[in-house]
Amino acid sequence: MASSVPGPRELPDSQYNLNTYWGRVCHSAGVSDPFMLLVTKKDLDESTALVSKYKNGEISKMTPQLWHAKKVLDSTLHPDTGNPVLLPFRMSSYVLSNLVVTVGMLTPNMGTGGVLFWHIANQSLNVAVNTANSNKSHPLTTKQLATSYTLAVTASCSVALGLNSLVPKLKSLSAHTRLVLGRLVPFAAVVSAGIVNVFLMRGEEIRKGISVFDDKTGEQLDGTSQVAAVYAVGETAISRIVNAAPVMAIPPLILVRLQRRFVMSKRVEMLSNLGLILVTSFAALPFALGLFPQRQVFDVSKLEERFARMRTSNGEHVKRVSFNRGM
């Protein structure tokens, strides 16, 4: 993010009012803009130089060029490390990276092997995205990463296979109802495993706490906060559920209705499924990311009691703290 560029002067958080949901949606649409994937190293260096000039007082006010430079940095750099997030795991690549595995999971009438393959692929991608965009106060070890990945994959595949075997046994329901429920099995599996995935991949943050900063000065406070970590991880899990819900539920339900009204070849069915998922994914992502601010600001009374007694380097009591929620 642009906040990682050094300088005594702070950039405005956004062109939009981040205290409102719609403002955060508009801001998130910029961060997740797929055109940001076309940013080159030269573009990144130029944007960093421009933002640096503003933060060091060489540019007096925000301009359209500066807002674009901030958008480039916000969509490319990790807010904690200041390093570029690996391209396939940026929010600007989220829809495109998930497209193939989502289409795979929503493919009707897959066998056990297909279900296992696509849910393993989905959880592998989730692990990579969660790791790349998490708060970096406490990076996971290789062992913790492997354990969390295994548990998340197990949860996803267990739910998917369990529900796939259960739905056909519901003889009291009509064939159409069983068909609809069968198409929603991937949604149930993805949501349940997604929650497990976020909490496992970022569990170290909850156990050890995350870094918090004085909101007025930006100064990092002594120690870490487990309370802030619970908020950060919990809000991320909720936003992932909100993002998955329309993507995993709307396309299969629309496809069922289309199949009832029209005779569709396999190719037309596949293309229709792909188009529905793509449109729904692009529409849903900003609304999910905008649920909560990425950089949260809390009154110090909401955190552990010790933070209320802290003072900044200039001797003032800490009143409000900020922290990176992650994405």
Quick structural gist:
The chain is α+β, with helices and mostly antiparallel strands.
- The class by helix and strand makeup works out as alpha+beta
* Number of strand segments: 4
In the residues, how many domains can be counted?
A: 2
Tell me the strand order in the biggest sheet: 2-1-4-3
Low-confidence stretches: none
- Overall form: globular
Helical stretch tally = 12
Mean pLDDT: 81
* Distance from first to last alpha carbon: 12 Å
Strand content: 5-15%
Computed Rg: 22 Å
Describe the overall structure.
This protein has 327 residues and is an alpha+beta fold. It folds into two domains: 1-77, no CATH class; 89-324, no CATH class. The protein contains twelve helices and four strands, in the order αααααααααββααβαβ. It has helices at residues 21-31, 41-55, 64-76, 94-105, 112-133, 142-166, 175-183, 185-201, 203-208, 226-261, 266-289, 305-308, and strands at 210-214, 220-225, 295-299, 320-324. A four-stranded antiparallel sheet has the order 2-1-4-3. The longest helix is centred in the last third of the chain and has 36 residues, at 226-261. It is globular and about 70 Å long. The model has no long low-confidence stretch (mean pLDDT 81).
